[in-house]
């Protein structure tokens, strides 16, 4: 069972964050045996597919370069031309095989694990230069596994090669009796099929290596219970940090709330335990009054002090204050059930303003029994 450096068993499945961080570091499953198998098989297949063309081009090059006239031999410039022409023919002849191998070398590494570019892999790591770490890697389980795979590949390819050469023995002996051109083409075919069978033998190594690499990578990613808890704390935040953040958010919200109190039309109090500040803007067209601020005890006292400082009308209505406090969130409209009660309060406040400005008579005292629905009532 896998253990961490602290001695705890890695029994927990890796989290999404663990997998994501590992991928960013380039620590994903890769199978060199799968790449070797695919490139070898592709090269053998390309040799069979384009072997005839390669053989014909080779014979053309031999004729062109071994049957030279006297004029060409004595002309120094013709040698360069022959060399350039031979190089172009060789490139065009091998281009299909080289292109196929190039594509396979790019595609196969990303088949298992997908494409990834990690800058951390390009950074120099001086720990790799430590001789002790190098010796430790030489005798690690991974090194022993790679040694076993190398021996297995050697033995497997050797067995397949012996079987193939034994079966093709008559064909190989017959090449010696064939005309040169036919012998060259036949040789390419024999080599191609032999390489194809030997490459197919590597399939067994690849089929064993791919699940092993996936298992080994998953094993490295597994976590201890403590690592899972630590990661959760890092993602969610430590309790004391979260508490501090909530405290700062509350303080910021209270500062905004207190700054809005001077804009209120009326402050309704309990009179001491509750205080709510309301504002009504008739120009918005049918909108209900907004709750600008609310608080209990100390906050209620501060709301009243700021209201008095800015000459905001303060009225006592315990039931209405409690109903608004519990039913309405900051900067939201009051519920429809309180429209009538708040309308009476605002009408009384506007009448007081007109009276104080000398444009009306003194209003009658505010009705103490305001219409508050039972479902919105709150006991003190």
From TrEMBL:
Ranges of compositional bias, category Basic and acidic residues: 7-26
Annotated localization: Cell membrane
Region (Disordered): 1-26, 360-380
Chief location bin: membrane
This protein's UniProt keywords: Bacterial flagellum biogenesis, Bacterial flagellum protein export, Cell membrane, Cell projection, Cilium, Flagellum, Membrane, Protein transport, Transmembrane, Transmembrane helix, Transport
Membrane topology type: Multi-pass membrane protein
TM ranges: 34-55, 97-122, 143-165, 195-215
A biological-process GO annotation: bacterial-type flagellum assembly
PANTHER family attached to this UniProt entry: FLAGELLAR BIOSYNTHETIC PROTEIN FLHB
Family designation: Belongs to the type III secretion exporter family.
Role: Required for formation of the rod structure in the basal body of the flagellar apparatus. Together with FliI and FliH, may constitute the export apparatus of flagellin.
Protein name (record): Flagellar biosynthetic protein FlhB
Originating organism: Pseudomonas parafulva
Gene: flhB
């Amino acid at each position: 069972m896998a253990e961490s450096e602290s001695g705890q068993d890695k029994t927990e499945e890796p989290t999404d964050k663990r997998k994501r961080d590992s991928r960013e570091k380039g620590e994903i499953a890769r199978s060199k045996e799968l790449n070797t198998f695919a490139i070898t098989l592709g090269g053998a297949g390309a040799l069979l597919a384009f072997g005839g063309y390669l053989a014909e081009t080779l014979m053309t090059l031999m004729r062109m370069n071994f049957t030279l006239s006297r004029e060409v031999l004595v002309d120094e410039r013709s040698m360069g031309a022959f060399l350039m022409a031979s190089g172009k023919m060789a490139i065009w002849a091998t281009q299909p095989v080289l292109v196929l191998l190039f594509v396979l070398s790019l595609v196969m590494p990303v088949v298992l694990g997908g494409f990834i570019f990690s800058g951390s892999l390009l950074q120099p790591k001086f720990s790799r230069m430590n001789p002790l770490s190098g010796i430790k890697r030489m005798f690690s389980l991974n090194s022993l596994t790679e040694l076993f795979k190398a021996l297995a590949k050697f033995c497997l390819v050797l067995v397949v090669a012996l079987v193939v050469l034994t079966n093709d023995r008559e064909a190989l002996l017959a090449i010696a009796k064939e005309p040169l051109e036919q012998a060259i083409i036949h040789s390419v075919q024999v080599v191609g099929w032999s390489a194809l069978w030997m490459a197919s033998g590597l399939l067994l190594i690849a089929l064993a290596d791919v699940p092993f690499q996936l298992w080994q990578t998953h094993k490295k990613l597994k976590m201890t219970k403590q690592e899972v808890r630590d990661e959760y704390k890092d993602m969610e935040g430590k309790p004391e940090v979260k508490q501090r953040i909530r405290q700062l958010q509350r303080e910021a919200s209270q500062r905004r709330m207190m700054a809005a109190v001077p804009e209120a039309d009326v402050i309704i109090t309990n009179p001491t335990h509750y205080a709510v500040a309301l504002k009504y803007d008739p120009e918005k067209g049918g909108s209900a009054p907004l709750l600008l601020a609310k608080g209990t005890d100390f906050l209620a006292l501060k709301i009243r002090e700021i209201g008095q400082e800015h000459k905001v009308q303060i009225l006592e209505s315990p039931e209405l204050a409690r109903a608004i406090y519990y039913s309405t969130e900051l900067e939201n409209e009051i519920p429809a059930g309180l429209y009538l009660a708040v309308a009476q309060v605002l009408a009384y406040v506007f009448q007081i303003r007109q009276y104080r400005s000398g444009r009306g008579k003194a209003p009658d005292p505010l009705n103490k029994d305001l219409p508050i629905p039972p479902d919105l009532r709150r006991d003190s």
